[in-house]
UniProtKB/TrEMBL annotation:
The chain crosses the membrane at residues 201-220. Residues 263-395 form the GGDEF domain. This is Diguanylate cyclase (GGDEF)-like protein. It comes from Geodermatophilus tzadiensis. It comes from the Bacteria.
Amino acid sequence: MSRTARTRAGGARLFAAYAAASLVPVVVLGAVLAAAIRQDAVDRALEYGRAQAAVVEEMAIGPALRGQDLGTGLTQAERERLSAATDLAVFRGSILRLRLRDFSGAVLFADDGAVGPVGVLPDYPAGEDVVPSTGPGFTLAAGGGTDVALLDGDGLAVGRVIRVLQPIVADTSGRSIGVLELLLPYDAVAAEVEAATTRTYWRLGAGLGVLYVVIGAISWSTTRRLRRQAAQAEHDALHDPLTGLPNRELFARRVEAELVRGTPGAVVLVDLDRFKEVNDTLGHHAGDQLLREVGARLSATVRSGDTVARLGGDEFGLLLPGLDDPADAREIVERVSDALAAETVVDGVPLAVEASCGIAMHPADAADVETLMTCADAAMYQGKRGASGVVVFDRRSTVPSAHSPALQLEARRALEDGDLRLHYQPQVDLATGRTVGVEALLRWQHPQRGLLGPGEFLPALEQSGVMGALTEWVLRRALADCAAWTAAGEDWTVSVNVSVRNLEAPGFAATVARLAAAAGVPPARLHLEVTETALPADLAAASACLAELAAHGFGAALDDFGVGFASLSHLRSLALTEVKVDRAFVTGVDTHAEDAAVVRSLVELAHGLGLSVCAEGVETPEVADWLRSVGCDRAQGWHFSRPLPWPELTRAAALVPALPVEVLP
């Protein structure tokens, strides 16, 4: 079932559940209202009986008695007046039975002549023959109240009846002299009430029906709107807003689905060449137009079952399922490349789009999405460096660029997984020939490519946002090794390279001091090196950090001195202890007069500022001798030792070539 079909089915289920749920309160409301209406009908009937009894008592019984006290009984004349006053109502059927009782409950007058003491009268309704004088209804009526009840009228051969017990007031004093008992027919009243109730039921049912329909319409509309919004939100979350193509997330899902399915295929990364120039020269709106055009051309060129995605920026991805031969994938990608190369006009400017494409095959190159993307990324960057813009990944020859996102991810993981190493290169005192310090150099033990130098991966780490964590790791490792070789009897200092970004980070000097204290290394044994070419124009933050480090007792060196743009004012303002002359000048000092003049001047300048000098890249004894002759303090290079792990460094230090001792003028 497709995602759209599942969404619709889910929406239908949601509406059905909502409709069923809304029906329950409507039915309950209808039942409550119906019960209330029925009870209202009964109350209206009882109120009718109360009113009838009041009329009979006031208009017929009271005037007929003319103030007579029922306690002394009734005369024949009074019975006749009562009979005459009530005959018409009884005859018309508005009263079924009429009784006058004294306070003891004895019947003093009955419309049918059945009078006598308290007892059972055979023509009373079943179970209601006796109105005991101690009953709550009689007591209420005797006290001046009115009791109304709905009774079964089986004894009268009628349906239900309304019984009213009403006090009899025969004079203007308001004093009750007895109790009037009336049985009134309920059916006629009930018929009228039932008709009114039925009409009310219909109105209620119609109203509830309309309410339910309205609720249903609202729920259906809401469900549809929510379904559309959910579908739109899902689409937006998985598609690029500029081109409408799947984004990186959806592309990864589809690649994962192909891997789970087990069918072979190819993943292609397409990166536009010189796209930044379009943005810079024509503007971002032109760049957006070009990206839309590229997306359209890619979609028009690949097969119907292939996926085209925009992964971000000017990078696109292709998923080509069903291919197990790299040649077939290359053929499709070359068609894509040719389609992109066709001239397009953006803002009236004709452009020819060039792209670098990297192809990785699954499952041959990788069996998971991340590794497959890394392989395609490495092939794509090789395409940028080579003559061909379409490259199929080959593990033996494809090397990621130091700036590629894939290598950034690998380098970050190397830091997390402990695959980074520190090697150390000795720094030799040229006056004595003794190793006095070492420089920590970062290495990566790559699982496929072996031991890598910093130039092959450090740019990737610098762009990955982990330089702070990396520098702290290097410092912690270097200080631990320094403590170890100190315990072994060596008094070497250790130099660690840091970036200007580290110097500008708040609290960096405090962090260095904390790490040194934790390792038990005196501050004077740690030197921090900052590259001259990386110095910013505004040195305020870096200068403040170096001053704080100096206050703690740490040394600081300016690395690659001579190839950057450090001015004399910079050298004066920075709290430095040493400058390191770049190998670009050192290598040729014994054969090139220009290099010799530069190095001699740099040594004199540094000494004039009170700084020591260390020369890098010393590879021959002739260069070492020349440096010693011009007063250079220290040197390092392959002439003395290549970088090694520190346990091997002790043996290498013992083999450092001896230098002739000469007293310099």
